[in-house]
Amino acid sequence: MWTVQRVEAQRTTLDFTSSGQARREVTQIFADSVLFANASQLSSWDESRVQVIVCQSCGIERCEPGGWLAPHSAGDDILFVPVFSEMLEHHPAEYAPPGYVNERGIPLFSRTFYSALRNHCASLPEAEALPPLRGADLLRCLQWEAPLQALGTFPAKVELRKDLLLAVSDGDVSDVTASLRAIIERVDVTDVISLRPAPANWMYPTLYLDGPGTREWRVLARDEEGDLHVCPAEGRIAAYGCFSS
Fold first, then answer.
1. Residues 200, 105, 133, 136: what is their CA dihedral angle, to the nearest 10 degrees?
2. Beta-ladder partners of 207
3. What is the reported pTM?
4. Which of 7-11, 23-27, 69-73 shows the lowest per-residue confidence on average (mean pLDDT)?
5. How far apart, in whole angstroms, are the C-alpha atoms of residue 77 and residue 141?
6. What is the pLDDT of residue 88?
7. Interior/surface letters 114-137, b for 16+ CB within 10 angstroms, e for the rest
8. Residue 245 pLDDT
9. How far apart are CA 198 and CA 78, in angstroms?
């Protein structure tokens, strides 16, 4: 995931004359210098899903496919996740997330930076009013970001491809594989997921995948008792339970 560290706004003018409209001044939102939303006044931030990147030629939502995200609370953090349900029900390209999700990861805002975002998106709900992150959506997020499609390829079911796991930096690969599978099963039936900071003394085993260049995957954290937790973002673990390995 992409932990946002800075939110900025810039005024610019979009040229809508090709669609029979006038030029329009809009506010663009940048997260860590990446264009997060290209016309904040034209997106429906109060909806359960929002097209953050609207058509550059007319500014009308749904004119162009893609650019969709859905804000969810996850404890003290807010995630803007792809709209997986809509992509399953319709053509995936119609509701695909913005390109930066594939390049940088799924955006994660702390309460501080979410408040900064709301300063420029007046109808964006308060964090407490957002729907909570469900376990099924967290799994889809992990699947979306996993290197070498280690959890399958969307829209296929989220399943660990054990044929890809070559080794692990800490522990036995068979035990870690079994624990990760158990975590997937547990998370899938969890209604509410919270993210919380991982204690400083926890370890982060590296999973080595069989692919070009032997890819590394860090998706787990091991606590002082040896139990494994899913770690969807650097320094953050998902609160739902844990499993021994």
1. -110
2. 168, 217
3. 0.92
4. 23-27
5. 15
6. 94
7. bebbbebbeebbebeebeebbbbb
8. 47
9. 17
Q: Which amino acid is present at 245?
A: S
- Tokens read off for 121: 């998106």
Q: What is the pLDDT of residues 228-245, one digit of tens each?
A: 999 999 889 998 754 444
pLDDT tens digit sequence for 44-88: 999 999 999 999 999 999 999 999 999 999 999 999 999 999 999
Give the 3-state secondary structure of the chain: CEECCCEEEEEEEECCHHHCCCCEEEEEEEECCEEEECCHHHCCCCCCCEECCCCCCCCCCCCCCCCEEEEEEEECEEEEECCHHHHHHCCHHHHCCCHHHHHHCCEEEEHHHHHHHHCCCCCCCCHHHCCEECHHHHHHHHHHHCHHHECECCCCCCCCCHHHEEEECCCCHHHHHHHHHHHHHHHHCCCCEEEEECCCCCECCCEEECCCCCEEECCEEECCCCEEEECCECCEEEECCCEEC
* 91 neighbors 155 (Cβ within 8 angstroms): no
Compute the average pLDDT of residues 121-147: 95
Q: How far apart (Å, rounded) are the C-alpha atoms in residues 211 and 213?
A: 6
Separation in Å, CA 53 to CA 23, 37, 102, 207: 17, 5, 15, 35
Residue linked to tokens 């997020």: 141
- In which residue are the tokens 């957002």 written? 130
Phi-psi region of 84 (alpha: psi -120 to 50; beta: other; left: phi over 0): alpha
